[in-house]
Structures are given as C-alpha cells and as structure tokens.
Amino acid sequence: MLPEEHNDRLRVVLVATRNPLNIGAAARAMSNFGFRRLRVVQPFEASFREARSAVGASELLREAELFDSLDEAIADCSLVVGTASIGERQPEVPVRRLDDGAGLVRSHLHHAPAAVLFGSEKRGLSNDDISRCHFLMRIPTRPAHDSMNLGQAVAISLYELAKEDVAPPVVPERKPASGEELERLTAMLLSMLATSGYTKPHTEEATAEKTRRMMRRLGLISKDAELLTGMLAKIRYVVDRARERGSD
Amino acid sequence: MLPEEHNDRLRVVLVATRNPLNIGAAARAMSNFGFRRLRVVQPFEASFREARSAVGASELLREAELFDSLDEAIADCSLVVGTASIGERQPEVPVRRLDDGAGLVRSHLHHAPAAVLFGSEKRGLSNDDISRCHFLMRIPTRPAHDSMNLGQAVAISLYELAKEDVAPPVVPERKPASGEELERLTAMLLSMLATSGYTKPHTEEATAEKTRRMMRRLGLISKDAELLTGMLAKIRYVVDRARERGSD
C-alpha cells in the first residue's frame, strides 16, 4: 500500500455514467484499493442521486463531487489519463498498456494530482474527452470481446494503480502545468484561431481536439504555461482589435 | 493474448455463489480475457438458472457446467488455486500475491489443466474448500476494506491470468497428479485413518483438511499417484480385514 497522501492525489473521474450500480461499484473498488477522490461528470442525474443515497452508500460515495464539465473536474490535475478498450477507434493520443501507464501515473502522484477518466457504459470516452488526455491506458482484453463492464474496468485499473513501485520515484524539480492552465491556454489559442479565420465552421471540432492534444504533448511546466498565457493574451488583444476594425 | 488451447485449460470455479448478477459478471470477464470454461458448484439453484437463461446470456454462460461438489468440479485439474481476501483467517496453505500466483498458474496451463476457485459473496471459500487448494492467491486490497465484489475480484484475477509470460514457460517432463487422483488417494488414506481409530470423532474434520493439504504439498506426479493408490489399496484391504476380525 502506498501512503495516503499519495493515493489522495488521484481523482477517479466517471464521465456520463448511466447506471447507479456502476457508480457504486467504482466507489467500492476505490475503497478496496485505498483511493478516496471520486468525481462524477454529467451523470444521469437520477442515477447519481440514487447511488449516493443508497442504503449503505459509503462515505466515499457521499463525498463524491459532481461536475458539469470535464474541464472543471480535471482543473487541478497536471496529468489526465483516459481508459479505453482496444477496438474503438484510432485515437490520436499515445496509447499505453494499463500496467505501463499505471506506472507513469503512480510516479506522477508522488508530487502532483492526476485524473483517470472512465467513459460511459455505451460509448466510452468521446473524442472531445480524449483530447484532454495526456495518454490513454488500455486493458489488454480480447479483441473479439473488448467491451468491459464499467465496474470491472475501474477495479482492474485501480488494482494496477495501487501496486507499489519497484523503482523509487523520480521527483521532477519542476511543477507541471495543471489541467486548468492547459485548458486556459487552449481556449485562448482556439478563440484566436476562430477570430483569425483559421478555423472553418466544418473543421471547428477537429481543430479544437487537435489543439488540445498538441498542448498535452508539449509537457508544459506551470511557469511556462503562465508565460505563454501572458504572451497569447497580448496577441489576442491585437487579433481582436484587428477583427473589430475589419468589420467596421 | 495466449493461444486458445492454453486458456482453455483454465477452469473458473464459482463455489456457492448466491447472486446471479455475479455469475453473469464472472462470465463477462472470462469472455473479455479469453477464458471459456466456467464451472459452478452448488449455487443457489434459482440464481444459476436465472443467470443462465437471462436475455443476452453468452454462449459461455449457457455452456457453464453445474456440479454438486467441489471435488467433481476439480477432478480433472492438477493445480487448484483458491482466491482470498487478506483479513479472513490464517490459512494453512501457502498464500501468494495475485501476480506471483497468476504466473505459476500460467506456467501450469502450458501443459495441464488448472482451476481457480472463487468463494461465495458472504463467506468466501470454506476451510474445507481451501484444503483442496495447492495455494491461495490474494488481491492486495486495503486491510481496512478487503472484501471485494465477486465480479470485480474475478475480473482482476483473470486480468492477471491473461497476462503474457515474460520468460518462456518451462514444460516439465512429467505429468502432475490430477485433482481426482489426489482426492482418491486422500479418501483412501482418510478411510484408513478412520478404520484404524487414528481419527477421533471430534478431530475428523481437522484431520481431513490436514491430510488434503499434505497431499497437495507433496507435488505428486500422476505416475506416482497411481503407484501410491495401488499400495494404499493393498494396505487398506489388510486394515479392513483386521477391523472385521476385531469386531467378531
């Protein structure tokens, strides 16, 4: 078992979960493996209420946090990792085997918060969700039947995440940029791309995803994110003014 | 993924399962990880019928085998491994971490059948069940909350069992004794112990368990089991005759 403060840096994020039994199952597995921070994004409202108020619902479940958007749920996380089955699609973010990916998350938790995302029972994570991830972890299921039960997928992932490190963690000297910082930068850049006419209506979504992925690949540290944000703010001001003049 | 014939040597054995949802969850995880042989021992009959006839029940579930006793369910297995949580009791069989134990099971499957047992939701495996195991595997859960959901425990165990070997398997030259052979030997020995007056009524159960564990520790090969059975048969004949004469 890892020390509590280490495990408490992990946020387990359930996105658009439908079945309250699955929210309960996720909470139970978290308790089994010593994780406490459950976040739920846009669940079917009724299903979340039902899970939270069920007789015997754990403290963990009662303290679960509800968010309207994924961005808010990962705002304090400097590493965001999605989970996916094999078949789905060709994601444009790096894909790692669960055990490899879990090792990276564990290292990160030694110094900063990280989020692991689980998508809905029917569709998994959307491309929009995935564009917020630094990488995806895949449970190596059989290609012919790769769709796992959500509660079981959460349990297997947390089992790997709770394993002890074999090698001592390398603590980086510099604080990586948080999800909030990255998203602020991304939004800034996107608004500029839109204002500047770079983004066409039919490519708007694709551009947004591409931009988010790029931001994550940069591996920005917090200090640089701040610097970049300042720079972009300046540029955006100019772009916005140019646009205003153009439409005069 | 391992070759099919390898995975088909694994029997997943659910002992005294109560909840049909858990039988269904076990079947689903088996399908995810490429295992097909599900055996169910003394389930709540109604719950097994319900799980098997559920709409959308998989072929795997429809082909699950029902057994009246654990001995029948493991008769063709030369390695029997139980699963247990940490708190329960001090078992008298060796206990391994899941990942270590799973490696041993995988090696065994290269040449012979093995069974992995899961106990009931409430009580886990009984001491009587455990006495039929060569070793136990433990999922490293948090001691304060070590009781796992059955479907999740099955999923995590099969996830480890489906992992590929890092080193090539060592195929032993000799065929290990099957569960049936071991149990035949054990029963023979126990009947002799009873007839001989070694077993007292109040120690009968403890003796049976102790004997089974010892048999498993021996690591008998099939040929030797046969030899031993022949020897014991001969001895039992003499013991039985002596007893008959004694009671004349």
For the biggest sheet of chain A, the summary is: 7 strands, parallel
Cα radius of gyration of chain A in angstroms: 19 Å
Low-confidence stretches of chain A: 168-172
Strand content of chain A: 5-15%
Find the biggest chain interface.
A-B, 25 and 25 residues
Q: Briefly note the structural class of the backbone of chain A.
A: alpha/beta
Order of helices and strands of chain A: HEHEHHEHEEHEHEHHHH
SSE diagram, text form:
The structure is a homodimer of 248-residue chains.
Chain A: H1 4-7, E1 10-15, H2 20-33, E2 37-41, H3 45-53, H4 59-62, E3 65-67, H5 70-73, E4 79-84, E5 95-97, H6 98-109, E6 114-118, H7 127-130, E7 135-138, H8 150-161, H9 179-195, H10 204-217, H11 222-246
Parallel strand pairs in A: 1-2, 1-6, 2-3, 4-6, 4-7, 5-7
Helix pairs in contact in A: 2-3, 2-8, 9-10, 9-11
